[in-house]
């Protein structure tokens, strides 16, 4: 009876839990939050520096070992189309979307390396041929924008990757044991489809134009600010929701791509190169 009364008292008692920031409730630990925040910002900066340097090194080696092809990559082969169709088609039935997310991270890393190599190659050509510098300035600016956007997206994908890796490890373990465990929530195609579309667009060299209308500017800023604030306030307690926020952000980028295509503003980094090459002939 004593244990039952104790359980009832605990059940009926009002328990206050701080759901914000890091759940700090003691006033004496006021310094802990800003300290951890500074450490987190330092970690983000260090991670950016490491990834940026690694990409620069790999792109430099790529330029030295193999000539950079400035044309559109061969992305419309049957193998790539069949592989993408199989990947998308198998997510609702067998593969978890975390597997497709890992593939997107690898593909995006390749896109970033290629964009850095193209930017460095074009900059070297501009320095070596001063007469062509004015013609290649616009293309260099477009390359820098394309490179920075893809690098930012890669950093977001890599930061969210640890959230998805545990599920992928469990799936691989069950796959090795030939034990099919149904995870219905992990076969949600909408949780990965916008990310797939954006990454595929980056592979094709598509560039999202700068939002022009007040509505698109407001929605873009709102998505990014909400993503940042949610990560700061609730990120440590609801880490899995960060993946869905990234998915929503990519869905908004997809809407911007469709809007650019509908209004004839959709730019391609390889088409810009061809247009400038044709303008030099005139």
UniProtKB/TrEMBL annotation:
Transmembrane segments: 29-62, 83-113, 153-177, 189-209, 215-233, 240-258
Cellular component, GO, one term: membrane
Keyword tags: Membrane, Transmembrane, Transmembrane helix
Residues covered by the GPI inositol-deacylase transmembrane domain: 12-256
GO molecular function, one term: phosphatidylinositol deacylase activity
Keyword Membrane on entry: yes
Any one biological process term the GO annotation gives: endoplasmic reticulum to Golgi vesicle-mediated transport
PANTHER family (UniProt xref): GPI INOSITOL-DEACYLASE, NEGATIVE REGULATOR OF VESICLE FORMATION-RELATED
Protein name: Unnamed protein product
Source organism (scientific name): Ambrosiozyma monospora (Yeast)
């Amino acid at each position: 009876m004593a244990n039952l009364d104790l359980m009832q008292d605990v059940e009926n008692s009002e328990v206050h839990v701080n759901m914000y920031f890091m759940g700090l409730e003691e006033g004496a630990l006021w310094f802990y939050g800003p300290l951890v925040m500074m450490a987190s910002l330092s970690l983000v900066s260090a991670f950016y520096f490491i990834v940026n340097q690694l990409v620069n090194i790999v792109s430099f080696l790529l330029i030295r070992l193999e000539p950079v092809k400035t044309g559109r990559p061969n992305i419309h082969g049957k193998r790539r189309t069949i592989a993408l169709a199989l990947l998308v088609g198998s997510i609702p039935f067998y593969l978890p979307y975390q597997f497709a997310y890992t593939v997107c991270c690898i593909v995006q890393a390749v896109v970033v390396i290629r964009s850095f190599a193209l930017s460095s190659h074009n900059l070297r050509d501009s320095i070596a041929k001063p007469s062509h510098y004015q013609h290649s300035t616009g293309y260099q600016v477009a390359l820098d924008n394309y490179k920075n956007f893809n690098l930012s997206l890669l950093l977001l994908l890599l930061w969210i990757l640890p959230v998805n890796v545990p599920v992928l490890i469990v799936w691989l373990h069950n796959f090795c044991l030939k034990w099919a465990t149904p995870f219905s929530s992990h076969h949600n195609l909408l949780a990965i489809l916008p990310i797939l579309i954006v990454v595929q667009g980056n592979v094709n060299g598509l560039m999202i134009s700068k939002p022009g209308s007040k509505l698109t500017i407001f929605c873009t800023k709102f998505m990014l600010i909400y993503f940042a604030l949610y990560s700061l306030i609730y990120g440590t307690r609801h880490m899995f929701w960060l993946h869905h926020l990234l998915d929503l952000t990519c869905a908004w980028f997809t809407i911007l791509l469709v809007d650019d295509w509908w209004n004839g503003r959709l730019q391609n980094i390889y088409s810009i190169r061809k247009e400038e090459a044709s303008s030099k002939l005139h």
